[in-house]
Amino acid sequence: MAKRTPSAHQSWLPAANDSANGFPLTHLPYGAFETEGQQHLCVAIGTHLLDLYECAASKLLPRSIAAACQAAILNPLMALGPRSWALLRDTLTELLHISVETSRRQVAEAALHSIAGATLLKAIHIPDYTDFYASIHHATRVGKLFRPDQPLFPNYKHVPIGYHGRASSILPSGIPIQRPHGQTCPDKPDGAPGFGPTKSLDYELELAFYIGQSNPLGTPIPVGKASSHIFGISLLNDWSARDIQSWEYQPLGPFLAKNFATTVSPWVTPMAALEPFRAPASPRPKGDPKPLPYLRSSADQRSGSLDIKLEVFLSTNTMRANKLPPFLLSRSNVQDLYWTPAQLLAHHTSNGCNLQIGDILATGTISGPSPTSAGCLLELTSNGAKPIALPTGETRSFLSDGDEVILRGTCETPDHPRLTLGECRAAILRAHSPSTA
Amino acid sequence: MAKRTPSAHQSWLPAANDSANGFPLTHLPYGAFETEGQQHLCVAIGTHLLDLYECAASKLLPRSIAAACQAAILNPLMALGPRSWALLRDTLTELLHISVETSRRQVAEAALHSIAGATLLKAIHIPDYTDFYASIHHATRVGKLFRPDQPLFPNYKHVPIGYHGRASSILPSGIPIQRPHGQTCPDKPDGAPGFGPTKSLDYELELAFYIGQSNPLGTPIPVGKASSHIFGISLLNDWSARDIQSWEYQPLGPFLAKNFATTVSPWVTPMAALEPFRAPASPRPKGDPKPLPYLRSSADQRSGSLDIKLEVFLSTNTMRANKLPPFLLSRSNVQDLYWTPAQLLAHHTSNGCNLQIGDILATGTISGPSPTSAGCLLELTSNGAKPIALPTGETRSFLSDGDEVILRGTCETPDHPRLTLGECRAAILRAHSPSTA
């Protein structure tokens, strides 16, 4: 990609040029919002959103993509393919650029709404949801807690481990999560298991990749062609009930411990916006095996990962009552993952499994090498054994009712505007009363 | 349900009264077929199918359900709820009964097609697919192969173990399955894993329950109310690649070993047709723990299971060339399951997980107590160690290319016509060539 001078990225919308906002002209993440009882697609720009339905109605968009931009969800646009994605992006970039002619700018201005006052909705219909386990730091640290002798299974460095999640309970950012009930391990070997609200509710900091192009059943996607099948990304919080998980997960994996809710950022950052933040695949430590050929591509090794800084914040009822800002729990980076997105996708389809437009492939918890870069409380508190002290004097082993978890992602590189991914946040509601169980 | 004399079940269609056919007047399973380039809903009767779209167009159906019967899939009809399901069933039973007036009979006759000449399609859009592990005989026998010291994990008798399957690769009966490629365990501890076509392709004999009524996220369905949420059943074959499975499944469960294909019978038997075949829950052996209260209902214990005889047949290329009939591999019965369908559904929603109309809950492999009643080759051949001898002189440890697997289900009880579930069959195609990988 040719380098541009910073002025190339100037918009006529002042807030888009303020680096404090994460939605500059080079970002343009997709979303959906409610307007007059209808769901319209939009892109974020500065502190505003641009209504794509209105842009199409006002003839600001090429005819070939206008109908897809007037759909309620992004799936029809995704189905048009990468050329159409680029065409729309180029059109919107030109329209919002400082050099656009006044007449078009005025029409676009009429399609702007403040994000602050908008109700954001789920922009993508998600048919299937797959969750991976791509952070070796997460897998090792969790493994150490439960299997000190063998933290990593022998397959980890060969197989991008993954499992199927539940698509029906994926929620957009902002919807509160109800603490789930579940079965837990008996206190003594022959005792009855417990059943009640989970006592170890956790978050997991993840990145979600949206599939933008499908593959027919029986036709694998080679690792070298994987990137053209990915439309964009969101932050994702894979809520987890650790006490339920540890009792139910053998031998078929997590189930009710995870499927009660998953939160995604409502803004979908297109892969095109992330080009300047591409990064080499995480170097494998000496002695680690090379990935099998079907997982290897030199282009992917060179630039298949992403330099995205991630942060997790916690805000408790007490913190909000005392007007304290959210507390930073951890920092990590997508670059630290052991497997690249293209490797996850190539592996997923290596047996012919068909991915569909709108499917999510999530990374699994993104933890870095240091203990403070752990992407969940299970790691940060050593499964509750070492509670975290908060500025209020409160402590947390796991999440309490009223706690709000906020995931943030930031992309920074010299000579390019800073992007922030759409925020992913949700608060915990107390469990339902037994009478409704 | 009041007892009827056998003549109460007589249809004017002679084939419907022949007990050799499994689709008597009391069955009326739902399906979909292709006609003049369109997909129409239908029910099976005798050797024919009745086009529901045509019935609605000819004003044979009540107005409140006519539009749903003219949809391409069953989901809109399911969304109308149990009263509408009963209304449609009563209307069709009357219409096909020997006592119907000639004028209506003649209009119905015009909507009949021979099943033999029809192309059957997938009648239900399946949003999510959950697979359980409800046969203790299967779990114990598989456990013995891999963990002789501890065949069953301590959770098995308390938790209906389940995991999420892949909905995108569910296929209707008759579509051949391509042998998948995959990664397999290295031959020696520090060696590279293998990658190629699976050498241990297996079937799994299962029953699928279709969710007919959804529950909102956060609202569990009590075990006593579960049955009203189930619309009907199909046979289901959960194809499995055992070599891929044993290498990938720790710690998050099966993934690529299962998600390349799942075959369902195209005929959906409504729960109403199964009322005469209800059976008590399988009695728990002395010493087994009682299920927790959220999994217990006296009505469910009394009649929450189903008396459905199941059979698996194998037909090889050589058998077909020699005009030999398919070979019976095993026999089992749904009654042998450790958990009832209502318990599976109550458990699935006990944490608030939302089920959607059209979702499948599958039982997992249905094996009986005897070794000959095992529902997969993994059990029948002791993971390939004891190959099965076929009448042709061939042997099978696992499935070969060209093999066809046929699942059948039969319901029999005195004074009631015999039903057979729609057949679930598919053949194995050889793996794709490496050049397309």
TrEMBL record, chains A, B:
Ca(2+) binds at D131, E204, E206, D238. GO terms for molecular function: fumarylacetoacetase activity; metal ion binding. The active site is at H138. SUPFAM superfamilies: FAH, Fumarylacetoacetate hydrolase, FAH, N-terminal domain. GO terms for biological process: homogentisate catabolic process; L-phenylalanine catabolic process; L-tyrosine catabolic process. Substrate binds at Y133, R147, Q245, Y249, T365. Residues 27-120 form the Fumarylacetoacetase N-terminal domain. Residues 130-409 form the Fumarylacetoacetase-like C-terminal domain. Pathway: Amino-acid degradation; L-phenylalanine degradation; acetoacetate and fumarate from L-phenylalanine: step 6/6. Mg(2+) binds at D238, K258, T262. It comes from the Bacteria. Its cofactor is Ca(2+); Mg(2+). Its EC number is 3.7.1.2. InterPro entries: Fumarylacetoacetase (IPR005959), Fumarylacetoacetase-like_C (IPR011234), Fumarylacetoacetase_C_sf (IPR036663), Fumarylacetoacetase_N (IPR015377), Fumarylacetoacetase_N_sf (IPR036462). It holds the Pfam family FAA_hydrolase. Keywords: Calcium, Hydrolase, Magnesium, Metal-binding, Phenylalanine catabolism, Tyrosine catabolism. This is fumarylacetoacetase. It comes from Edaphobacter aggregans.
